[in-house]
Design a protein that fits this description.
Chain lengths: 589, 589
């Protein structure tokens, strides 16, 4: 029914015969003529119908917004003074010979042509209308290009696109699993995978050498703007390659992607930063390098001051006094702002937020405006100002607490200040964060910072057991503009080492056997050295298209309560279905 | 660690430096030398280590089957008389300079190098070993080529690779759903999709025009050799195109696939057969055209015979007398075979299986050997023999019952005879089956033969309601060698027509609203004409690689009781998890 997509008509000669199929985006009647804007996935073109055109005019006259039509006609270049420079096809129009209406439309519940504010609930309920809006269509066309470019690169590099099960066993990522009751094994449940981690490792043990998959993963967590119950991962694993090899391949892939689709040249190589530096300087394991403003440490400068709030943490091994310098911010930060920031950092456990406005850098203590200046000697104040490169007009914020609270609070405040004061440079800042600790302590219990299959750098069991928290892992995260877009590691390929890690994590042999017995077995039968990475595809696309939520790049997303307003899933099911599965709904007491 | 895959070494010059990484497939000690066969995903190559090689020899001497190694060395062409013609790399070998063992292996539970019979349970439990067997590795390498070729074609044709939800609402395919309890909406359940049917239609209504997806689908059915709880579909939908357009694109895709990967040229165009002809001539809606032997109808020839078993069905509008002629089979079919065939057809409801052996075609009734000949006149017998092209040495089998029983019984017997008597030609026989009835009657209730969104050919509501069983649909199935590999249709794009179909199916307005309200809504807002198809990817790959079960082309399949011997899924979960989901396991009474 169609000879061309609307956007492709610009390639045609004047007078070319053509047919297009799509929706009436807009209709205008002017000077006896009818102007139709016809929309398809590629874009919009204007169709002109003149009053002397009998049947064609009559057909056009019946059309309303979102009617589905096929238009046959001829291409006409618009005269210079009629060219619409805001439209990609603004230099041409179609003179209609024939118009067929294939379907009518009621007045759409969402304006396709326009910018009205519509609630997200309505957008999701009428998602098929929301997706027709050109700005949404474009995001999804872009998404298909991203997937396709990534696949092409991985295919070229000899990676095999292989599938792994969705109905499987609980995986070790640690989030809550979605469960599926089994009918044939009543009382037992499948878990939907949080990632194909163990299966991709098994594929390496099966000898497939290089694997990738664009794969759905599931986490039953409470949702935030960038979380969904189901999300898509670009999952990758390879054998016989170390972290240098894998990181090199992966950053080349991302560089090519940005170059091809956004004409953006990312740095080569990506910078790298140890986890410890990221935490100290940016208070985050995914620093956003589009803004400067590191967290300065001034422990050595304040440990002797007569101000316990500073000297206490400065003298404590687990404590820290950190400072952010908001350059030129003194004039733009009001008392009210400071109160708000104080409340903001309290969410991260900070008990207060000391500040210093540097009104006159040359005037010593007299040039500083702050409730805490009275506790500082002139020398200490001067040393701090030097440490943070303070100039007149700056404002300094202090975090003084455990190292963790200071990192969390000032790390978050740094991003908030950057946003509010427009300090985020319009640029792409990729980064590898490396040298992660193998374990972190939570409530006195060691946890794997990544997952328990990550290889430590220390391979000696005794050394590992003697100092687990001092051990670094062979993990690497790819960070882009403050978002973790990918994370991976070299995995353990030796059974004894895997057993040692389980021991350190306090996983009892029986539990290890039950949960991961098949992996321990597999490690005995000739497991190659291997490692990999997984990218959050939704998040990567979200960043690339500049969307504010992954919901804008997922065709049919769930709400924050994990429901679908369109299909009204989840839904009640029949008693008979439950009975067949051998389960019952618990009655509320 | 690797310069080349093993199979690629044949491209190198004599003396080239190389390194390979893989598994010790086999080790032989001969005349003081050690011969290692090293295996990677590409194949196997021989590595030779000589006794005067000190460290290298010592390292080689430690190696056993399935040890993981990196070998560095030089390429050597084998002398003419040492060439192993059974090996793809049999004309070369690697002279090792350096051998590093990366991991040891216990004696594998499955022999990788060999052809011992292993139970399927063991193969699945140690799937990572099973998959290392070269014949299995090859199947999966082929599968990745199939997926990749299909994607490439669809990308070129402007189809967009888009994703649809896995946590969704019950879909209308009619098989049993897998359910997922919702934690945030207690007492409600998601269903895993049996296909993305409604979502792909919604994508058409969203204006994406051409969609495809390699997508996991789920059916909680009792399993057979070619069924799995989760399976993979190549799912396709397009707007503004009729069945001719879609079938043309799809058969071109399959032709290209076979040409590229198997060097097989399929017919252009694929033959087409109406459903009614397929059922009458082959007793199946997916006839296997690799064998001739149609079911002949002889109703007109036996309606007057004095043999109720024949004349009854022949005179009944719903009855039929059908005949299979097994050419040259008289000598090879014993009384015992016939008893077995009689039992075989009884499964399909046939009450008996009359036969005639044509011993001497020229001798009239005297030349025929059969318990039923005495009931036939010479004229009737002669007419039947003529109708079925009988010659001396043939044996005829009769089905005499309702048309359905005759089709089922003789359709199945036809394939059984073809298999047992080696009548299946070694060729590829694709076919479109078209002109399906829109509805079928089951227990007095009308059911959609495909699904209720399939467009009928008759669009007038009154005519449809007056004669639903006489209405054909716009559905088409692609059949290959007797397997349905794809099925699709033009969909309904008009709300009134959709409502009429629901009415005819006896779906109450409230039920229609609850289940498909969102679709009915969507049809009101400018739905384009659209249609599509879905291919069973596992089955297509199974056919192409000549596997006997889809389990051989799925990485980690389930057993026939829907369990995974490797991970031991499904598994028990904790009471706490169930409590969070608001469900309980029903106690057995």
């Amino acid at each position: 029914m169609r000879s061309h997509y609307c956007a492709d008509l610009v390639t045609l000669e004047e007078g070319s015969e053509l047919s297009i199929a799509g929706w009436v985006h807009r209709r205008r009647d002017l000077g006896g003529l009818i102007f139709l804007q016809i929309r398809d996935r590629s874009g919009i073109v204007q169709v002109t119908v003149e009053p002397d055109q009998g049947d064609v005019f009559a057909a056009a006259d019946q059309l309303r917004s979102e009617f589905v039509v096929v238009v046959k006609g001829k291409l006409r270049k618009r005269p210079e003074n009629m060219v619409n420079k805001d439209m990609a096809t603004g230099a041409i129009e179609v003179v209609a010979d024939h118009i067929e209406c294939l379907n009518a439309a009621e007045t759409p519940a969402i304006l396709i042509d326009g910018h009205e504010e519509v609630s997200e609930e309505t957008r999701l309920k009428y998602r098929y209308l929301d997706l027709r809006r050109p700005e949404m269509t474009e995001k999804f066309l872009f998404r298909t290009k991203v997937t396709s470019a990534l696949r092409r690169y991985l295919d070229e590099q000899g990676f095999l696109d292989m599938e792994t099960p969705i109905l499987t066993k609980a995986t070790p990522e640690g989030a809550r699993d979605y469960l599926v009751p089994s009918r044939t094994h009543k009382g037992s449940f499948f878990a939907l995978p949080q990632s194909p981690q163990l299966f991709k490792q098994l594929l390496m043990m099966s000898g497939f050498d290089r694997y990738y998959q664009v794969v759905r993963c599931f986490r039953d967590e409470d949702l935030r703007a960038d979380r969904q119950p189901e999300f898509t991962q670009l999952d990758i694993e390879t054998s016989f390659m170390d972290e240098e090899g894998i990181m090199g391949l992966m950053e080349t892939m991302i560089r090519k992607l940005f170059s091809e689709l956004l004409s953006v040249e990312l740095p080569n190589p990506f910078p790298r930063m140890p986890y410890s530096e990221a935490m100290e300087k940016y208070g985050s394991d995914k620093p956003d390098l589009r803004v400067d403003m590191p967290i300065h440490t001034v422990d050595d400068l304040v440990k002797d001051v007569d101000f316990k709030v500073f000297s206490g943490p400065a003298l404590d091994d687990n404590g820290r006094v950190g400072v952010l310098n908001l350059k030129g911010g003194a004039a733009n930060v009001s008392r009210k702002n400071i109160d708000e920031y104080t409340k903001f950092v309290s969410v991260y456990g900070a008990k207060g937020l000391a500040f210093i406005k540097v009104n006159d850098r040359a005037a010593g203590l007299d040039g500083l405006q702050s409730p805490i200046v009275k506790f500082l000697s002139a020398e200490a104040a001067e040393a701090i100002l030097q440490r943070v490169d303070a100039e007149s007009g700056d404002i300094l914020f202090f975090g003084s607490d455990t190292s963790k609270v200071v990192a969390d609070a000032l790390g978050a405040l740094r991003l908030k200040l950057a946003n509010e004061h427009n300090l985020l440079r319009d640029e792409w800042q990729p980064l590898w964060v490396v040298d992660f600790p193998m374990f972190e302590e939570e409530d006195g219990q060691l946890q794997a910072l990544h997952h328990p299959f990550t290889s430590p750098k220390e391979l000696d069991p005794d050394a590992l057991k003697a100092n687990p928290t001092g051990t670094l892992s062979r993990a690497y995260d790819m960070v882009l503009n403050g978002c973790e877009v990918g994370g991976g590691s070299i995995r353990i390929h030796n059974m004894d080492l895997q057993q040692t890690i389980f021991d350190i994590l306090g996983i009892e042999p029986q539990e290890a056997r039950e949960k991961f017995g098949f992996l321990l077995d597999a490690l005995k039968f000739g497991c190659p050295p291997h490692g990999g990475i997984a990218f959050g595809l939704d998040r990567l696309v979200m960043l690339m298209v500049g969307a504010s939520s992954i919901r804008d790049v997922i065709t049919f997303p769930k709400t924050t309560t994990a429901g679908c307003p369109l299909t009204e899933a989840p839904a009640r099911v029949s008693e008979a279905q439950l009975k067949e599965l051998g389960i019952a709904i618990e009655q509320k007491k």
